[in-house]
TrEMBL record:
UniProt-recorded name of the protein: Histidine phosphatase family protein
CDD domains referenced in this protein's UniProt entry, alphabetically: HP_PGM_like
UniProt organism field: Kineosporia babensis
Molecular function as annotated in GO: phosphatase activity
GO CC annotation terms, alphabetical: cytoplasm
InterPro entries assigned to the protein according to its UniProt record, in alphabetical order: His_Pase_superF_clade-1, His_PPase_superfam, PG/BPGM_mutase_AS, PGM_Phosphatase
PROSITE patterns in alphabetical order: PG_MUTASE (PS00175)
Amino acid sequence: MRLLLIRHGQTHSNVAGALDTARPGADLTDLGREQAELLVDRLKDETIDALHASTLVRTQQTIAPLAQARGLEVAIHDGIREWDAGDLEMNNDLESVDLYVKVAMSWAAGQTDVQMPGGPSGAEALGRYDAVIEQIAASGVGCAAVVSHGAAIRTWVAARATGVDVEYAEDNPLLNTQVIKLVGDPQGGWVVEDWGW
């Protein structure tokens, strides 16, 4: 199957540089809403059979124009929300943000026993993401578009797919509404076709 992992549009917390991972999360900015609308045209050549978003409001706002254009319902999953920042929640200092990314990338490198300060371990975080992707794949759709979150997408792809390594994932953050395209399945594995499209 084809899997399109899409980072949500710009939020007010993105503008502040804050680690906003708790529910329900910040709304999209005016620019974020524009990015969501532009996503419809950017994906016009993709045959998409199913739409999925996380429980954080920004992903649902991002996917709404695409759902309306395609006439598809959006399935909501808690497992694909952003990694819990724990004690770092809503911090926007460079040290906190760097630590958050460092922990997430250690999970991608296989150190899944490492714990986010006051938050989950890599095994817990990746496990919940895996469960949703497995559910989507098991539905038998040819192509699913999944609106999720930057750190979660990068970490999961670096941990579970071929075609990129952890260093590449760390050095290439996703901008708002950028897409990582993958092909494969949970049993045979995933291959990255495009990063940051």
